[in-house]
Amino acid sequence: MCVAIALTLLLSDWIGNRWLAAATALALLLPALVYHVQRAFAPMNALFRALAGSVASYRDGDYSFGLSWHGRGELRELVDSHNALGDALRDQRLALVQRELLLDTMVQNTPVAMVLVDPSRHVVHANIAARKMLGDGHRLEGQTFDDLLARAPDAVRDAFERGGDGMFTVGDEDHEDIYHLSRRQFRLNGRRHELVLLRQLTAELRRQEVQTWKKVIRVISHELNNSLAPIASLAHSGAELLRRGQHDKLPTALATIEDRARHLEGFIRDYARFAKLPSPRLEPIGWAHFLAQLRSQVAFEFDERTYGGDGGDGSARVDTAQLEQGLLNLLKNAHESGSPEHEVKLGLRRAPDAWRIDVLDRGTGMNEAVLANALLPFYSTKRNGTGLGLALAREIAEAHGGRIALLNREGGGLCVSMVLPD
């Protein structure tokens, strides 16, 4: 019994010493183990810190650097993918910067003055042309647009007060500039902004004016030559007939001279009427009386069953002489279109707050190019046309606050519609 107890005590001491020795060894080796583990994982930790730093740089818009990893495996793939992402973001940022630079260069150097105004009426952006026009070359950003208008010429302020788009002139007769104003509103970052465009049209309008005058001179010269040449020739022939005593042939020559002179007189009168069209003097007229008077001067059909039954009872306020002249021109064109005389018709119908007058024919109609230019002054497809008939009719309609339109008819022919406000 005593022997067993003694053996048990010896065994316990031996085991305790072994555990103590193991614990002592572990305590001595643990720092070294930790050191080697940290050393082994140090490059990986550095890589993770670099990845976190590069992601933060990408978030801030800096794509100027990449990562390097000499190992293999999944970490190498991660680094390569990260560097590829950085390259793609850097290329996109460079392309975006180049586009912004190109756009800013175009905006700054365009001759059109551009001003962007925010909801508080402060200038957000203004290009060089706008600075020269509204700020004597100084920056406009941050200033209130109303203050800029207060310092602008009266013509500019008047154009903005009228609202919408329009044209205005700045300067005096010797040095005047013509501008076109455009205003557009849109939402930017959820807020409504206004873009103001001021385009100088002086040079362009001057060129168009010169081209118009050249065309007028060509038309007038052609018409004068067509009349004066036969007049001069017939006058010379008349003198020869007098010298030879052949008086019986003189009436024919004199009649031809008179005919050409009257034609030239009518030509000049038409030009003067177009150039000096006065403001219409509105007075009430009854359509029945007006159409009867018009029919006494030119033939046309009026079919109430087809074109409405308002011609006998309705009335309007128009300048009788001007409207009569405009419709005479339209009806004359209808007769000269090659239409049968009974197919030249005039229709009258009531529209909401307006009257619509249609002049119809069954002639050859017009192709698209002629339709687009037929209402322009001095444009004519006729050999001896002046190009003023339709243009004068349009001027008369617009002077009354109305409009005129041309449309080819089904089955051939043309419809010229004049709409006059009530």
From TrEMBL:
One of its GO terms (molecular function) is ATP binding. InterPro entries: BphY/WalK/GraS-like, HATPase_C_sf, HATPase_dom, His_kinase_dom, HisK_dim/P_dom, HisK_dim/P_sf, PAS, PAS-like_dom_sf. GO terms for cellular component: membrane. The keyword Transport does not apply. GO terms for biological process: osmosensory signaling via phosphorelay pathway. CDD domains: HATPase, HisKA. Keywords: ATP-binding, Kinase, Membrane, Nucleotide-binding, Phosphoprotein, Transferase. Residues 219-422 form the Histidine kinase domain. It is an enzyme of class 2 (transferase). Transmembrane segments: none annotated. It comes from the Bacteria. It catalyses: ATP + protein L-histidine = ADP + protein N-phospho-L-histidine. Its EC number is 2.7.13.3. The keyword Phosphoprotein applies. This is histidine kinase.
